[in-house]
Amino acid sequence: MTEKTLLVIKPDAVQRGLIGKIISRIERKGLKIIALKMMMLTDDYVDKLYDIHVDKVFYPLLNSFITSGPLVAIAIQGKNSVKVVRKLAGVTNSPEAEPGTIRGDYGNDLTKNILHSSDKPERALYELGVLFQEEDYVSYDLINEPWIE
To answer: Within 13 Å of residue 131, how many CA atoms lie on the same side as its CB?
Structure first.
């Protein structure tokens, strides 16, 4: 089933120059990027994006980290994109992530864990609505030309 999902490249990955490597993995998987923006999150955005964590003990640390620098928000579309992106990302605790996943290859910390990805299709739609407006999305067809890996 074709669906939309959100992937956020967190400040630690931006500051380490990993944006291109991460986007490349999305594209090589055959997923379509339908919106992309670099931004600094305010506390209001963080409270909305991570509303399910606001009352948890780790939330102040999460808020401090996610607002510490620029991040890249990516709206992705494709068949089973929520599951596919979660698999590409690897488990949340980077030291436990499998090699070959983004976190397994580039992450080394539980808190500063490179990415955020939506965990369910309905949650993806909510999170996308926090960071993107309808006019941010673009529509196009992917082509599979022989020169593309």
So the answer is: 29
pTM: 0.93
Q: Which of 112, 26, 139 is nearest to 73 (CA)?
A: 26
CATH of the domain at 95: 3.30.70.141
Q: Give residue 146's pLDDT band: very low, low, confident or very high (50, 70, 90).
A: low
Which residues, 6+ apart, have CB-to-CB distance to 17 below 8 Å? Answer: none
Domain that holds residue 51: 2-131
- Enumerate the active-site residues: 116
User: Is residue 140 in some structural domain?
Assistant: no
Number of domains in the chain: 1
Residue 91 within any structural domain of the chain? yes
